[in-house]
Amino acid sequence: MGRYKLWFNLTQNPGEDLFLKIPHYLDYGRVIDRAFPHLRHIPWKASTKETGFTYFKDLSTWARPMLEAFLHLLEGILLLTRTDHLAAHFANELTEAYALDFNFQQGVDPLTYTVAGQLEHNAKENRDPHAIAELSRMLAETIQNHPTLSRANVIAAVPPRPSKDFHLPTELVNAIGTHLNRPVGLQLAKAEVPKLRDLTLEQKIATLEGAFTLGEPIVGKTILLVDDLYQSGVTLWMLARFLKSQGAREVYGLACVKSWRDTDNVA
User: Fold this and answer.
1) Using the 8-state DSSP alphabet, how is residue 260 labeled?
2) Model's pTM, two decimal places?
3) Which DSSP symbol is given to 151?
4) Are 1 and 83 in contact (CB under 8 A)?
5) The domain 84-258: what is its CATH number?
């Protein structure tokens, strides 16, 4: 599957530790632990149907609201993990990746955009300034409210081919910098490679091998990459691999939307 939305059961009986039960606990447990490395809890334990649970110890009065707010954030966005088709080629290059939503609503015929999907379509195809502004606001809000993403040293766009005259991720990152009142961007470039849409997974990887160049040092830094659409994930994973080879400590991804299929757009 490789794409999840969180639900959670967070309860505390009088005199007992705070109990948390979540689905896909091996993935979400790591997400929570990275977000709050100082919160003490028992090791995550498996429950039924891929769920797991833990008990948090001695939470301060401010820690529970922060944890609960983060869980609500994860309820509203997609966590994107390595799918089976990526697992044969990638390991841990990308630490975490997210999308605001799918591009199309599930089980609706004819195809109907989600809110984020409609905004992404309008921003990319029509260069609609309102859609760009709203997407950048949503992305900035996600970053600001995500403890791990907000700690990134660098927020940068997935780079375009040089021939592109409009690149939505760059527009979004520039606006995110304004929203968050922080510098953004990276001297990161991509060669003029063929479009990946109609290539096989192996051809995509081969095409992107050696396609990226970097013009500044990033040793020890944490990088957050922003893209408009996450399809197969190959571009983001290959770029994360390149940045790790240049000394990045961790690489994260945040996209506007995820396609239903892991190859090309739903059309």
Assistant:
1) S
2) 0.95
3) T
4) yes
5) 3.40.50.2020
